Model the fold of this input.
Amino acid sequence: MIEVGEPIHVPKETDRWAPVEFFWRGNRHLIRSWEARPAASRDKGRRFYRVRTATGLRCMVSEDPGRGQWRLEKMLAPSGRAL
Done:
């Protein structure tokens, strides 16, 4: 089980529009698909993404560019809905 807003590490890729991997709980996760999602008005300044990894993990991650922080917001069911 994850905690809401659990920190993850996303390496910076200067020549790509989207990350190719992230690190969570000491494990590397290769990203298969990356989709921008609209943020709620209360989340001003944060960016949200729906991610699927090479191993089938589906999750919602967020970026706070002002702070340089990434977070794993929630795990998603195969349908794309929150668990």
